[in-house]
Every structure is written in structure tokens, then in C-alpha cells.
Amino acid sequence: MSEKPYISVIIPVYNEEGNLPDLMSRLYPVMEGVGKPFEIIFTDDGSKDNSLKLLTSFIEPYPEVKIIELNGNFGQHMAIMAAFEISLGDIVITLDADLQNPPEEIPRLIAEIEKGHDVVGSIRLARQDSFFRKRASQIVNLVVRNITGMKMSDYGCMLRAYSRPIIDNINRCQETSTFIPALAQTFSSSPTEIEVGHSLRQEGESKYSLYKLIRLNFDLMTGFSVVPLQMFALLGIFTSLFAVAFAIFLMIRRFIIGAEVDGVFTLFAILFFFIGIAIFGIGIVGEYVGRIYQEVRHRPRYVVRHIYESKK
Known about the structure:
- By secondary structure, the protein is α/β, with parallel strands linked by helices.
- It has helices at 20-34, 51-57, 76-86, 106-114, 131-148, 164-172, 180-187, 210-224, 227-257, 264-297; strands at 7-13, 38-44, 65-70, 91-94, 119-124, 160-163, 191-196, 304-309.
- It is elongated.
């Protein structure tokens, strides 16, 4: 391409061979309809199906397509970060490959950036997920908003738009694990959100298991806030004060009533409760220590095996 792209569309791909043809047949006309130079960057995150083969077949008919092949599975956010590094657009759009968020919404995100916003988030309307997944997402969104202080309504929707200065700032960050929407929010001076459509996944399975969702949300909370540590410290203070008060109460009760064997089970229950609190707190501290351990090793966040693009 001789003309610098004005828009970069970034799509992480992991085992999405069933969705890629439909995705491209819908996405490309949308981008042509915008009427401005664009590029579409796919990152193959170590797919084990025919996703990479399908992606490389797009290069000849669609010269705007670039493909990054990663040397293994590094996760959705690292796949996006790899594409951020080579993107050239003044506006950068992230989109999942599963077609749950329609690419037809992209012009609306572009319009919001052109109004002067530097980050445009999205809120999934009539979300087509299971009841458990929707309720869990609502709880996580509420907890994360309160812990981090970031005002995002839907953390899980990756259909988002960013201005070039935001992308440049993200590229300067070198965390080994991160959550891109929250990271962008920390650099944003004029964020906004719009409501977008949501569809059922037609092909393949969600790449986020229950464990991965819990892991992602721990990363989000511990990566952008020290509130969990502060809350545990306050809990420790209040627990200590309660323990002292309870000890004084037991001592006075012993002088008044005398020794009682019957209370031993109550004491064990209280002891186990305090031990549970201590173990929970150690787990929180462990999350932060683990993040420090990951950072000090200075290992590559991802490894690019090859970049495919048109020679035209």
C-alpha cells in the first residue's frame, strides 16, 4: 500500500477457522465504505486448526491485510499488543474474530474518535451469552469499577477504538500481563462509550474458560490497583482489635462464671475463621508477588515467528 492507513483494524485469532471467511466477507465492505485508507492486522496466536492458512489466503485478494504469526499461544491481549507494535493508523480498532460483535459497528466507533474522544468503549446490548456468564460479568464489572475507580460499563467487550497517542503510550508499557481496555483508560483524557449489538457465536468455542476468566480478572484488579492490599490491611487491623476485645471478654467471663469446657468448639470455629482470613490475605499478597516475579524475569511478552503482508 502506498498510502498510509488512517484506520487500523486489529483482530486476534485463535482457532477461528469457522468464522474467518464470514468475518472477512463482512468486515472488508465495511472498511471500504468508510472511504479512508485502512489496514487489517490479524494476529494468529498459535492456532492449531487451519486459521493461519485461511488468513494467508486473504493477502492476495485483500492487499490491506497483514498477518502476524506468533510462536505459540500468548493470550488475547498479547496478540493485540503485537499488532499495536506494527499498526500505522491514526485510529486503531480492536475486534474479536468470533463475530459476536458485528464489524458493521466500526464506523460508529470511528465517528466518536473523530469527535475528539481518544478512547471509545462499547457496551453489549441484548447480550447473547448464558445466564451464568452474564451475571458473572456484571459482578466482575461492578467489583472492578469499585476497586480500580475506572468508569467502564463493560470490561469484556473488545470492540473498541483508540487514537494514535493512546496506542503509542500503550506501546511504551512493557508489562508481561495486562488488560488493554483498562490500560488505555489510564492514559485517556476524553473516553466515551457506545452501545453495540451482540450475537451468538456461530462457530467454535469461547477461548475463555472459567479459570481464564478468573485469572484475567485477578490480573485486572492487581494490575491497576493496590486496593485489595489496602482492604486486607484494614481487615487485619479490625480483626486484631476484635480478637483483643474478645480475649478481654473471655478473661472477664472466666472470672465471673469460671472455666467452661463447652466453649471449646466456639473457640475452634473462631480460630478457623481467622485462619481463613489469613490464608485469603496471603493469596492476595501472592498475586502481587507473582506479578513482580514475572516482571523481574524480563522475558519476551510474545515471540513473532513471521509477518505476512502484500508486496503490492
